[in-house]
Structure formats: C-alpha cells, structure tokens
Specification:
The structure is a single chain. By secondary structure, this protein is α/β, with parallel strands linked by helices. It has 2 domains: 134 residues, ACT domain (Alpha-Beta Plaits, 2-Layer Sandwich), CATH 3.30.70.260; 250 residues, Aldolase class I (TIM Barrel). It contains 13 helices and 17 strands. The strands form 3 sheets. It has an 8-stranded parallel barrel with strand order 9-10-11-12-13-14-15-16, surrounded by 8 helices. It has a 6-stranded antiparallel β-sheet with strand order 3-4-2-5-1-6, sandwiched between helices. It has a two-stranded antiparallel sheet with strand order 7-8. The longest helix has 17 residues.
C-alpha cells in the first residue's frame, strides 16, 4: 500500500509508523513524492492570518501550515494540489497581492511510505493523525497511474520542460563519434531551437563486432558540448559499473530498450536523482513498460519520461512497429510525459516525418530523433538519421501539428 503523509509529519511520527509496519513483518520504504508548488508567505499577522485561512476552501489548495516566528506573527506555507495548473497559481498570486502579502514561490513534496503488502493494517493507518491517505497498491503500477496523480506531470531537463502542454525535440547523433562530429551536430541543432542534445557514449549493440561507442571518452565530449553550447544532454546508461560517470555528465539518463526490464539497473539509476527517459522494451507489453517506470518511482525517482520506440512484430517493412496505441494508453493511464522515437521504429529516413506527425497527433509530448552531420558515414544506424543540415526544415514542418495539439515549446 502507498501511505501519503501529511506535510507537517515529524521524524518521530515517521519512525513510529515504520515501527508499526515492521511489527507486521514488513520493511517500509520512505520516499519524497511528486513536487508540488508551495508559496512561503512571511510576516503574517492579525486579520490577514484569518483571511488566509479562507484559502483552504479553494479547490486547488492542498494545505496551509503555520509557524509562529514571533508573538502574533506567522509564516504560512500554502501547498497547491498536484493537479493545480498555472491559472490557479496566478489566481492565488492576485489574491495574495490584494492582501499585500509577501511570499516566495518554491517547491515541496508530500512524503510517502510504501508498505509492500495490502491488508487490514490499512484501516489502522488511516486513523493516524499524521497520515493523509492510504492507497491499496492493487495493480502492478500505482505511483505511475492517474490514481496517484490525476493531472499530467512534467519533467524539466536542464530547464527544458516536457509534459503538461510543453513539447520538446531531443536530437543528436545515435553515437558520439568525435568532438568535431558533436560540435557540428550541436551547432546545427541549437540553431534550429533544440535544447536537449542526445548522443550515445556507451552503445549496446546486437552484434559484438558493431561499434560499441567511445565510452568514457564519449562522456568527456558530451561534457564539452554542454559547456560550449549551453544545452542539456541525455545519454544512455548501460551498466551499473559506469553509471556514476554517466550521471556526472547527463542531465537526463536514458534507459534503452534492451535494459527496460533490468530492474537492478533501474533502481541504481533512480538513486542518482536524475530525470530518466525510459524506453519501452522491444518485446514489452504496455503493463511491463509501466511497471518498469514504477520501479523508478518506487525508488524515489519521480521525474520519469516514457518513450515509445517501436516493438518487434512479424512485420519486416520497418525496423520495428511503432505502437501509437501505447502512446494513447500511456497518456490515459499514467500522468507521465510521453515521447516517441520515430527513428528506431522506422529504420529509414523516408518514414520519419510521417511517423513524427502521427506521434504528435497521438498526444506525444516530444520527439527523440537521431540527427547526424553526415549520416552515410555514421558508425551506427546510418539509414535512420536525419542530416543535421535538414533538421530545421523537419522541425518547422511539424510546427502546425504541434500547434494543433495545443502544445508549446
């Protein structure tokens, strides 16, 4: 079961709750939940304090916590609900300004505790004064589902937001091959407005004789690209042995299709505290894909982006079959941002624009595409990479479809 704690829970109360669960032979796990908007309102006195209590009745306000900082002088923390939208925030700002309140916007989390068993103990836990709610784990994925968060969540990668109406292009070569190659690619892509550069330093390949990436040298190149162009980078983690070095460079860690059910790696990646782009396994069901995301979130990683990249079927006309129904299901069943990789699905350049349009129409929050300065000379996936010189046109051609879906960049 998933136990949501109240904002003012104390360490002593958390310890008591943990002891209660352990008495039933289970090991609980304490996590920080999804980030919520918080207004810290200072120097509140007298009648203003009473007026602020009225904010509790607003449908988008989750809680108000008071701390007395001096006699009859309080600091009040106003927590917005997870489904609060920016219009709600602006409305609250106007109300606070009318009261001449001083406030600072920040972020906070409602702490949650996970008990691996659903049983009658849930009824006891609901009676505890510091417990806000208890949700049965039920299905395999709970934190991923809209039962936990009814509105769309968003993930920020180096300041570029994906989800909740924000659309992003993630682009770059399949593999980091040289500093010159990455500089040429990054120059063209950033001119086209790309804010997140992709590039594989470690490349898990089907054949042991194929190019496996530059490894640590590739990470050094990505670090230079970040500094030189002021962009965020995402790259794949393929093993726990090199994860620390990857996390030091990457603004977002990518989990490739071959590792989508490598649960040990997923848990270690979650521990880095970095956002994660989780590709669907090439033979994974939708439920298995969501369950892999649950491994990340149950470990405390709440900045997860789902990526549909095509699955293996009997069809041979494309490299993989792009399952756009999975995008629609992911947007309905989960609150997570969803991006689509049309390159690995298509396997050839001519199909990428059409699949990109279809992905946007299906509700995708972004596209992750491969773009290379000279695809015929690429050391991997040459047939499915967009020439970086053509990327701006590719991106411009998609703008009407992005606008039609009421998403912005």
């Amino acid at each position: 079961m998933i136990i949501e704690l109240k904002y003012n829970v104390t360490p002593k109360q958390i310890a008591a709750l943990s002891d209660l669960i352990r008495q039933h032979g289970r090991t609980p796990r304490l996590l920080n939940g999804l980030k919520q908007i918080v207004f810290n309102i200072s120097a509140v006195t007298g009648a203003i304090r009473d007026r602020l209590q009225e904010f509790r009745t607003l449908p988008f306000v989750d809680d108000l916590l008071e701390t007395e900082t001096a006699p009859d002088c309080y600091e009040i923390r106003l927590f917005f609900k997870l489904n609060a939208i920016e219009e709600n925030v602006w409305d609250t700002m106007a109300r606070l300004s009318a009261l001449h309140c001083r406030y600072v916007r920040s972020e906070g989390e409602r702490r949650i505790m996970i008990d691996p068993v659903d049983d009658a103990l849930a009824d006891t836990l609901r009676q505890l004064p510091y417990v806000d709610s208890v949700m049965p784990a039920g299905r395999r994925y709970k934190l991923v589902s809209r039962e936990y968060c009814r509105t769309d969540s968003a993930v920020s990668i180096g300041g570029a937001v994906i989800g909740r109406g924000n659309f992003q292009f993630i682009a770059g070569p399949c593999a980091v091959e040289s500093l010159e190659q990455m500089r040429t690619a990054a120059a063209a892509l950033t001119r086209a407005g790309v804010r997140i550069i992709r590039g594989g330093a470690f490349k898990p390949r089907t054949s042991p004789y194929d190019f496996q990436g530059l490894g640590r040298e590739g990470l050094d190149i990505l670090r230079q690209i970040k500094e030189e162009f002021g962009v965020a980078v995402t790259t794949e983690a393929v093993s726990t042995e090199t994860l620390r070095e990857v996390a030091e460079v990457a603004d977002c860690i990518q989990i490739g299709a071959r590792n989508a059910q490598n649960y040990n790696l997923l848990e270690r990646v979650a521990d880095t505290g970095k956002p994660v782009l989780l590709k669907r396994g090439m033979a994974s069901t939708v439920e298995e894909w969501f369950s892999a995301a649950e491994y990340l979130m149950a470990r405390g990683c709440f900045e997860v982006i789902l990526c549909e990249r095509g699955i293996k079927t009997f069809e041979s006309a494309t490299r993989n079959t792009l399952d756009l129904s999975a995008v629609v299901i992911a947007k309905r069943e989960t609150h997570l941002p969803v991006v689509v990789d049309p390159c690995h699905a298509a396997g050839r350049l001519a199909l990428i624009p059409g699949l990109s349009r279809a992905a946007i129409a299906a509700g995708a929050d972004g596209l992750i595409v491969e773009a290379h300065p000279n695809p015929p000379e690429a050391l991997s996936d040459a047939a499915q990479q967009i020439p970086t010189a053509d990327f701006a046109q590719y991106k411009d051609d998609l703008q009407p479809f992005i606008a039609l879906m009421e998403k912005y960049q």
